[in-house]
Task: inverse folding
């Protein structure tokens, strides 16, 4: 069986701020941007890797979500406990410096973790945690 990860989904509550973060701060390319207002689905991904993407989606767009669930999602996004993703780079220190200069919300500076990876962490404009691991 040959299965790959094609797209992961993260919620956004401000498509313009999320687009600016992923495009301008992280340097991802925009693959698609459909919809209007807050109901936009934006697909971004690393340049040179067209087979891997992140879909930035409005969290309340699913018609199967109840009002209570919608409230819970909004509360979790506000606390930064709803969505997260792990990225990787060969130059963690350089990446951290570039992101910090771009006013990204730093959660953790580059750190050697007890479980064997060196990583750092940021929050995107929607509160999603972005952890970046150093490739070794």
Result:
């Amino acid at each position: 069986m040959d299965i790959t990860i094609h797209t992961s989904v993260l919620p956004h509550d401000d498509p313009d701020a999320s687009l600016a973060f992923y495009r301008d701060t992280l340097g991802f390319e925009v693959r698609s941007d459909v919809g209007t207002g807050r109901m936009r689905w934006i697909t971004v991904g690393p340049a040179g890797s067209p087979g891997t993407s992140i879909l930035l989606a409005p969290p309340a767009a699913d018609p199967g979500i109840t009002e209570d669930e919608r409230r819970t999602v909004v509360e979790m996004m506000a606390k930064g406990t709803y969505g997260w993703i792990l990225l990787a780079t060969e130059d963690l220190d350089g990446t951290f410096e570039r992101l910090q200069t771009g006013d990204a919300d730093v959660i953790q500076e580059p750190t050697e973790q007890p479980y064997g990876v060196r990583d750092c962490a940021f929050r995107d404009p929607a509160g999603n945690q972005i952890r970046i691991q150093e490739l070794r």
About this structure: Helices lie at 15-25, 67-79, 92-101.
